[in-house]
Design a protein that fits this description.
alpha/beta, Inosine-uridine Nucleoside N-ribohydrolase, Chain A, two-stranded antiparallel ribbon, globular
Length: 324
């Protein structure tokens, strides 16, 4: 007997890789996407809403899209148009035919969706501003959410926006800190999982192009600017897709090959290490020398599941099946 689809809410700053992640969820029989909430990040809020609406239309889906926070909690917004293009989708002129968004805001939508669907799963693909505000509005949210997969951070290596930090957590580190100090059952999918052999190679790109489907062609074209920017950034050829990788690990947890639970902090005070994901991998945060600095985290949060390795062929197979 086929299990009932799991209920899912997607919070996103819809740009090129986010759009591919949306396609994967909207086409998956494993989940029922109950809501898509938009936060400013890769692009300004209104552009993110437009991009999400276009992607939903492309999938012939009927999922409500809600607009959320236009700026981080305490900082001006800094976007990633240099990576994704001015419109976030490679500047190819994508616009929804019927741009209908919901009247209530994303924060209320997160709370209402969680209340209506106890055990809800959440995946965040952008800055954590909406989720931080939802936790403030509904402190019992962690009791309603069974799993929250966060695409963000660089728990083992260099960041992609500063030497210390990945973009999503860097944009709004105060929101990220608030979320990681909550009782939410968090899973961190760091930027490093989308590098090296996980990058779509020219052979992978050719396989997707050979599908000759609307979804496959869109996924390649909207990432054209990102592909060039990724090479400039890393010297690696191909298309890196961090948000679809996070979605893959949510849709098929068995794709995670190594994951461990650790207390985690997000740096919000230092400009040098702003947004850095500090993972207590050796479990030394309880030692006397660290007790004062980690007391708030150990008292108020639960350990975060950090994904360190994944089944790369399995992730690429899931992607291609989603675009077929």
């Amino acid at each position: 007997m086929t299990p009932a689809p799991r209920k899912l809410l997607i919070d996103t700053d819809t740009a090129s890789d986010d759009a591919v992640a949306l396609i994967m969820a909207l086409r998956s029989p494993a989940v029922s996407v109950e809501a898509i909430t938009i936060v400013a990040g890769n692009v300004p809020l209104r552009q993110g809403v437009s991009n999400a609406l276009y992607t939903v239309e492309l999938c012939h889906a009927k999922v409500p899209v809600y607009a959320g926070a236009e700026v981080p909690l305490h900082r001006p917004l800094e976007v990633a148009d240099w990576f994704h293009g001015k419109d976030g989708l490679g500047d190819h002129g994508y616009r929804p035919a019927h741009p209908v968004e919901q009247k209530i805001d994303a924060i209320e939508a997160i709370v209402a969706t969680a209340r209506a669907n106890p055990g809800l799963e959440i995946v965040t693909l952008g800055p954590l501003t909406n989720l931080a505000l939802a936790l403030e509005r509904e402190p019992s949210l962690p009791e309603l959410v069974s799993r929250c997969v966060v695409m963000g951070g660089a728990p083992c290596c260099e960041g992609n926006v500063t030497p210390a930090a990945e973009f999503n957590l860097w944009v709004d580190p105060e929101a990220a800190r608030r979320v990681f100090l909550s009782k939410l059952k968090l899973e961190l999918v760091g930027w490093q999982l989308s590098r090296f052999d996980a990058v779509l190679s020219e052979n992978d790109i050719a396989e997707i192009a050979a599908l000759n489907t609307a979804l496959g062609n869109f996924s390649l074209e909207c990432n054209s600017t990102a592909k060039a920017a990724y090479f400039t950034q890393t010297g690696e050829h191909g298309i890196s897709l961090p948000d679809p990788i996070a979605m893959a690990l949510l849709l098929q947890p068995e794709l995670s090959l190594e994951a461990t639970d650790h207390y985690t902090q997000i740096e919000a005070r230092s400009e040098l290490t702003r947004g850095m994901s500090l993972v207590d991998r050796l479990n030394v945060s309880g030692d006397e020398r660290n007790a004062a600095m980690w007391a708030e985290t150990r008292e108020n949060a639960v350990p975060t599941k950090i994904h360190w390795a994944m089944d790369v062929p399995g992730w690429k197979q899931l992607l291609i099946e989603s675009l077929r």
